[in-house]
Amino acid sequence: MAAGSKDRRDRAAAARAAAQASEKRRERTVRIIGAVAVLAVVAGIIGVAIFARNADQAANRIEVIDPDPNAPVPEGVLGADSQWAFGVPYGSASDDAPVLEVWEDFQCPACGALEQTNGEGIAEVAESGVARLIWRPTAFLDRNLGNDASNRAISAWGCAIDEGFTREFHDAVYAKQPEEEGDGWPNSDFIAIGEEIGMSGETLDAFTECVNDGTYRVWAANSTQEFYDGGIAGTPLGKIGGVEVGNDVLADQASLLAALTEAAGS
Q1: Range of the domain at 24
Q2: What's the pLDDT tens digit per position in 152-169?
Q3: Is 162 within 8 Å of 168 (Cβ atoms)?
Q4: Residues 122 and 102 sit within 8 Å (Cβ to Cβ)
Q5: Helices 166-175 and 187-196: angle between axes, nearest 10 degrees
Q6: Beta bridge partners of 90
Q7: Do 73 and 158 touch, CB atoms closer than 8 A?
């Protein structure tokens, strides 16, 4: 009997120990979950505070440029009555070549990555006559980032277009895209880019005046409005013959050429 009683006491003690250990684990789990929940709430509050602060700063910092379809556009840029309103045609293709549209925002990191990966190839299909390239500039990121850098960059591009530096300025702005999204460029950077790509003398003077006057900021706003009206989800975005193609096609020259060849034969 004594041995049986001892066994029962041992089993009871082991059960109590197991129950206590289980309860401690449960309490520890509850504490961890509670701590994570608190951190999540705090993080959410911080996120909302940052968003609200940025929105307030943007409202105070950004000069809102309203669209006006009657505003002047740079030399050769399509007007409000075009199928590709306010777009920038580039290259030497004939009118019956397939149209390649590329929506871009100069502040967009993915656009910068596309330019680095296959910007040369996209320009080449236009220069060789394979496609009618139409760059579609948008400044939608200004709203997201709380600045007006994309609008001013498009306007400065318009000034460069007038001086005959369409591709040179386009490519150079992407090459000098700030490392931190949202840092943007002061106008002095655009003027420095103009010098770097070969502007000088009266050409540089005219370009500088155009940039500082914001001559084409309404054109930038008009093109951005087309972006919104067209329901474009983001940038970069390409279309061939009006049909959207994936960024994997834009980024790979062989795929781009194949898609353009197919479009030309259809």
Answers
A1: 1-61
A2: 999 999 999 999 999 999
A3: no
A4: yes
A5: 120
A6: 133
A7: yes
